[in-house]
């Protein structure tokens, strides 16, 4: 097979290597969907309520290459909820000393 189809052999070998790496890092890959929404919620909350920047600036600040499916900014309670890749996280402004915290 190697002499007849070297390209197919190299593609299969690369696929096996990628599967091995994915299996080795499966815990990190499983945590990835949580990171995007948690990052957006926490950083937007900090940008908006700790640093007191305008909403459009903070929205651009936390924009990622993976889009969020839902994003809510509750200005009365100073709470931000972001949902992406099927996971939802919220961050809330506590006070001047503590800033924002993930819930």
Description:
This protein is of the alpha+beta class. Helix content is 50%, strand content 23%. It is built from three helices and four strands, in the order αααββββ. The chain has helices at 6-24, 26-50, 55-61, and strands at residues 70-74, 79-84, 87-95, 99-102. A four-stranded antiparallel sheet has the order 1-2-3-4, with helices on one face. Strand 1 and strand 2 (79-84) form a beta hairpin. The radius of gyration is 20 Å and the shape is elongated.
Concise account of the structure shown:
This protein is of the alpha+beta class and 103 residues long. It has 3 helices and 4 strands; from the N terminus they run αααββββ. A 4-stranded antiparallel sheet has the order 1-2-3-4, with helices on one face.
């Amino acid at each position: 097979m190697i002499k007849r189809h070297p390209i197919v052999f190299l593609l299969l070998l690369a696929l096996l290597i990628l599967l091995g790496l994915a299996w080795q890092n499966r815990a990190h890959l499983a945590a990835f969907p949580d990171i995007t929404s948690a990052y957006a919620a926490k950083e937007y909350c900090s940008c908006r309520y700790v640093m007191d920047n305008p909403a459009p600036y903070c929205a651009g600040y936390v924009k990622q290459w993976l889009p969020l499916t839902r994003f809510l900014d509750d200005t009365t309670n100073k709470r931000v909820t972001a949902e992406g890749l099927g996971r939802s996280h919220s961050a809330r402004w506590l006070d001047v000393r503590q800033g924002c915290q993930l819930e």
